[in-house]
Amino acid sequence: MSRRIQRINQLVRKEMSKILLKEIEVPEGTLATVTRAEITPDLREGKVFVSVLPEKNKDKVIERLNRNIYFLQQKINKRLKMNPVPKLRFVEDKTMSQAGRIEEILAELKKEKE
User: 3-113 sits in which CATH class?
Assistant: First the structure.
């Protein structure tokens, strides 16, 4: 991955985090975090990975973000001084749930050894 794409990924993650924090309502008691962005090398498309806690609200939050994609896309277009601005979509970041599952398995194995 080129250095330029890495910087763009960081910039998109940072700006989308700010927008998500201030301008999108999530269900009460829910924490939604932009964990990373992956922009294609041609800068046409990108995925924004979102982690949601508690996990039971993840589908609602991802759906709400994708439903408001035009609003969010306009916000990011104004903030990024680049052309073209990637067309974004939101996806669930599964690394948190996978890490939690690994922790559960390790705890079970530790109990079995004792």
Answer: alpha beta
